[in-house]
């Protein structure tokens, strides 16, 4: 469903990490939004 699309994952737990690894093989870009103690942080897996 997301082949070649940009995907945004919200969360930083184990499940979100596994999803990012899986989706990186299919999506054009995977962006994870992880909220820390301060401002939200963004990490990209391409």
What this model shows, in words?
By secondary structure, the protein is α+β, with helices and mostly antiparallel strands. It has one domain (6-45). Helices cover 24% and strands 39% of the residues. The chain has a 3-stranded mixed sheet with strand order 1-2-3, with helices on one face. A hairpin with a 4-residue loop joins strand 2 and strand 3 (40-45). The longest helix has 11 residues, at 14-24.
Question: Any key phrases for this structure?
Answer:
46 residues; alpha+beta; 1 helix; 3 strands; 39% strand; NAD(P)-binding domain-containing protein
State the helical fraction.
10-25%
Number of helices: 1
**Which sequence of strands runs across the widest sheet?**
1-2-3
> What oligomeric state do the depicted chains represent?
single chain
Which strand-content bin applies to the residues?
Answer: 35-45%
Number of domains: 1
End-to-end distance, in Å?
18 Å
Structural class based on helices, strands and sheet pairing:
alpha+beta
Largest sheet geometry: 3 strands, mixed
Number of strands: 3
- The helix/strand series, from N terminus to C terminus, equals EHEE
Mean pLDDT: 83
Radius of gyration: 11 Å
Q: What is the 3D form?
A: elongated
Stretches where pLDDT is under 50 for at least 5 consecutive residues are none
Could you outline the blueprint of secondary structure elements for this entry?
Blueprint: E1 6-10, H1 14-24, E2 29-35, E3 40-45
Parallel strand pairs: 1-2
Antiparallel strand pairs: 2-3
Offer a quick outline of the entry.
The chain has 46 residues and is α+β, with helices and mostly antiparallel strands. It has one helix spanning 14-24, and strands at 6-10, 29-35, 40-45.
């Amino acid at each position: 469903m997301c082949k070649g699309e940009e995907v945004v994952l919200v969360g930083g737990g184990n499940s979100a990490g596994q999803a990012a690894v899986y989706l990186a093989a299919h999506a054009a870009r995977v962006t994870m939004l992880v909220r820390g103690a301060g401002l939200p942080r963004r990490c990209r897996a391409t």
